[in-house]
Amino acid sequence: MKSLIRLKLGNYDRALELINEAIKINPQCARNYVQRARILIKLNKFDMAIKDCDESISINPDYGVAYKFRGRAKQLLGRLEEAYYDYGQSCNIDYNEEVDEWMKEIKDDVIKIQASHPHK
């Protein structure tokens, strides 16, 4: 996929153009929304990335990569509990070492957050 190549080369604007074209052609492809989310994360557009991951999940709820990158965007926004949940969903669907590492990075902070506001 050309957009993925552009993403890896750091040409985010062109990658975004290409993936937007792909989404117009095939709006029911869950993978395309995740590819765009990955680009949006690189552009620090985390809320937009989350929306794309939500769309991907609505198309295919079993697409673990969508949870992975939604979690990443949420982590970068400081929404650690939500990120941790998404990472768990991702690993339940399809274990990924990178996601496991991201979970370990935030686990202690999530525990502290949960301890500071006990569930009613």
UniProtKB/TrEMBL annotation:
UniProt keyword Ribosomal protein present: no
Molecular function terms, GO-annotated: Hsp70 protein binding
Ranges of the TPR repeats in the UniProt entry: 30-63
Entry keyword set: Repeat, TPR repeat
Keyword Repeat assigned: yes
UniProt superkingdom: Eukaryota
Alphabetized InterPro entries for the sequence: TPR-like_helical_dom_sf, TPR_2, TPR_rpt
Gene3D superfamilies: Tetratricopeptide repeat domain (1.25.40.10)
Secretion signal span: none
UniProt-listed PANTHER family: HSC70-INTERACTING PROTEIN (PTHR45883:SF2)
Protein name: Hsc70-interacting protein (Trinotate prediction)
Biological source species: Henneguya salminicola
